[in-house]
Specification:
1 helix, rod-shaped
Length: 91
C-alpha cells in the first residue's frame, strides 16, 4: 500500500510539470497566433494606405494636367489674339 501511495505521488510530481509545459506551450502558441494576426492586420492597413496614397496621387496628377491644359489653352488663345492683331492690326 505504501508503494502504491509513493507511485501515486511520483505520478503527481511527474505529471504536473507536463501539464504546466502544455499550458506554457498553449500560451506561446496563442501569443504567436495573436502576433501573426496583428502583423497581418498591419500589412493590410499599410497596403490600404499605400493604395489610397497612389489613388490621391493619380487624382492630383489629373487635376494638375487639367489646370496645365487650361493654362496652355488660354496661352494659345492669347497668342492667337496677338498674332491676329499683328496681321490685321487693331480694329
Amino acid at each position: 500500500m505504501k508503494n502504491l501511495f509513493m507511485l501515486l505521488l511520483l505520478g503527481l510530481f511527474v505529471g504536473q510539470p507536463a501539464l504546466a509545459e502544455e499550458g506554457v506551450a498553449k500560451k506561446v502558441g496563442d501569443g504567436i497566433k495573436t502576433g501573426g494576426e496583428a502583423a497581418g492586420n498591419g500589412i493590410k492597413t499599410g497596403g490600404e494606405a499605400a493604395a489610397n496614397g497612389i489613388e490621391k496621387g493619380i487624382e492630383a496628377t489629373e487635376k494638375g494636367l487639367k489646370k496645365g491644359a487650361a493654362a496652355a489653352g488660354k496661352g494659345l488663345e492669347t497668342a492667337g489674339q496677338w498674332i491676329e492683331k499683328k496681321v490685321h492690326g487693331d480694329k
